[in-house]
Amino acid sequence: MPNYRIAVLPGDGIGKEVMPEALKVLDSVGKLCGISFDYNHFDWSCETWLKTGQMMPEDGMGQLSQNDAILLGAVGYPGVPDHLSLWGLLLKIRREFDQYVNLRPVRLLPGIPCPLANKKPGDVDFWIVRENVEGEYSQIGGRFAEGTEAEGVVQSAVFTKLGTDRILRYAFELARKIGRPHVTSATKSNGLFHSMPYWDERFAAVGTEYPDVRMDQYHIDILAARFVMSPERFDVVVGSNLFGDILSDLGPGMTGTIAVAPSANINPEKKYPSMFEPVHGSAPDIFGRKIANPIGQIWAASMMLDHLGEAEAAAMILQAMMDVLSRPDAARTPDMGGEARTADVGNAISQAVLKGL
Ligand code: ATP
Ligand code: MG
């Protein structure tokens, strides 16, 4: 029986409320598919930071490396500067474990009203592949001539050949794997003088290895408009760290609620554990009311199973989610227009998994 060691980091706020629902669903699917999980719980969070000045202990990365995958809730707390909690945990893990792919499905689910007029499930259904460790998010640069008339700041972006080629290749491979051989690249080579022409050049070069995959590229500004006007035309969209970041919030926004969207931080070579999380944050405004929607966290758990090679179990979770949401009387949290509580949604999906076979 396959057994997986999972590092469980609920983090802050509603991360603590949605995580138990994902574990509930994992246990149900594990029971059916003959998979078992050893959960290693870590309570690292902004509360840890407030007590110790660190988001994780000194040997934190060593502890995480003992696991097959990491399931993360959300990190962030009023009073703790975002950049400290991000660089101290999330970005640290992404970079040190070389999780250079950020993968997000953009899919309109049944029973969730789409903010775009006349769109139904099926019209909005594509993948965003974001470069996750280099590009515009660098610590290179700094202030100059401080305190003088000439004061300013430089922020550098770094695109290596290795880093650019491997994310583009991942996008092409994904397009083949899902049987939708079409990749759209986000660029801005008319404005960014050095980085984006290089990105375009590598897109063209890597693309020659995939003659069966259709290639498109759009400047980021018009691409954002096309997301909203004609989402049907996308299959796999690949972007740099900054462009991918923006598009991968726009995408879930187009599907009605960010609360259902998952995000996978992947090291495809499996040299290090990959990390799976919902797109949403710790939502301090609703924390404690037990009304947080757990679907983003549950979908993240499904992506984790897929990465671990348990495609069938992963698909069962997705199917159960779809089945539950398709029912008119489904348990829905307030963000989905209902009155259900977090645990009601988790229980419904967990039961649908068990009944599915
Ligand atoms: P962070 O800095 O942690 O990302 P944030 O305030 O920027 O926090 P979110 O925490 O994602 O972003 O919250 C944005 C809005 O979406 C809030 O109004 C929050 O209540 C709502 N929200 C986020 N996640 C959920 C969820 N799972 N269920 C219901 N509402 C949610
Ligand atoms: Mg936020």
Secondary-structure map:
Elements: E1 3-11, H1 15-33, E2 36-41, H2 46-52, H3 60-65, E3 69-74, H4 82-96, E4 101-107, E5 125-131, E6 141-144, E7 152-155, H5 161-177, E8 182-187, H6 195-207, E9 214-219, H7 220-229, E10 236-239, H8 241-254, E11 262-266, E12 274-278, H9 295-307, H10 311-326, H11 342-355
Parallel strand pairs: 1-2, 1-3, 3-12, 5-10, 8-9, 8-10
Antiparallel strand pairs: 4-5, 4-11, 6-7, 11-12
Bound molecules: adenosine-5'-triphosphate and magnesium ion.
Characterization of the model:
With 357 residues, this protein is of the alpha/beta class. It has 2 domains: 207 residues, Isopropylmalate Dehydrogenase; 142 residues, Isopropylmalate Dehydrogenase (3-Layer(aba) Sandwich), CATH 3.40.718. Helix content is 40%, strand content 19%. It has 11 helices and 12 strands. The strands form 2 sheets. A 10-stranded mixed sheet has the order 2-1-3-12-11-4-5-10-8-9, sandwiched between helices. Helix 9 runs antiparallel to helix 10 and helix 10 crosses helix 11. The longest helix is centred in the N-terminal third of the chain and has 19 residues. The model has no long low-confidence stretch (mean pLDDT 95). The structure holds adenosine-5'-triphosphate and magnesium ion. Has multiple catalytic activities. Apart from catalyzing the oxidation of (+)-tartrate to oxaloglycolate, also converts meso-tartrate to D-glycerate and catalyzes the oxidative decarboxylation of D-malate to pyruvate. Belongs to the isocitrate and isopropylmalate dehydrogenases family. Pfam families: Iso_dh. GO terms for molecular function: D-malate dehydrogenase (decarboxylating) (NAD+) activity; magnesium ion binding; NAD binding; tartrate decarboxylase activity; tartrate dehydrogenase activity.
